[in-house]
Amino acid sequence: MIPEVARPSRRRVVAVAALAVGAAGCSKRDGGDDGRPRSTAAEPGVAEQAAAARDSAALAGQYDGVIAAYPSLAARLAPLRAEVARHVTAFGGVPPTASAAAASTAAPTAPPTPAGALAALAGAERTLADRRAKVLLDVPGELARLMASVAAAGAGHAALLGGAG
């Protein structure tokens, strides 16, 4: 049985969709081979992509900490945690295993109630989605599209966790 969750407002869904479409159309484009020598500086977006992988891995660790502290939430959080692990992989990182992340995450830092833990996860998802949305115009097109997609997924996760608004 799927638990009842607050539905995101139509305005929020449209805003996230507009953000994703706008990012795909307005992001900087990679230059073609015009014969000019390439810069010795790091490729555009490399640092942002690595940071995105680290951020997603840290978020997966937060999910693992909440699951370790509140096993009753495991069934509800497992699909969202699996999505976050796929985001790590999409950004070129290696997702933490649930057991290793749970062991390294201090369970006492989890909020004192399951509802508080869900609200904290929703806040973390929302904060990360907002941070990714701000970076969209500074990264190459393909990475911008990926970040927009993952930011939209994060906003959806926040809504499913009960943190819409």
Secondary-structure blueprint of this entry?
Blueprint: H1 10-26, H2 46-69, H3 74-90, H4 98-104, H5 114-135, H6 141-160
Rg over CA atoms: 17 Å
N-to-C SSE series? HHHHHH
Rounded mean pLDDT is 81
Structural class: mainly alpha
Low-confidence stretches: 26-32
Total number of helical segments?
A: 6
Proportion of residues in extended strands: under 5%
User: Per the principal axes of the C-alpha atoms, what is the gross shape?
Assistant: globular
Helix coverage percent: 55-70%
How far do the termini sit from each other? 25 Å
The total beta strand count reads 0
Main sheet overview: none
Key words describing this protein structure:
single chain; 165 residues; mainly alpha; 6 helices; globular
Protein architecture, described:
The chain is mostly helical and 165 residues long. The protein is built from 6 helices and no strands. Helix 2 (46-69) runs antiparallel to helix 3, helix 3 (74-90) runs antiparallel to helix 6 (141-160) and helix 5 (114-135) packs antiparallel against helix 6 (141-160). Residues 26-32 have low confidence and may be disordered.
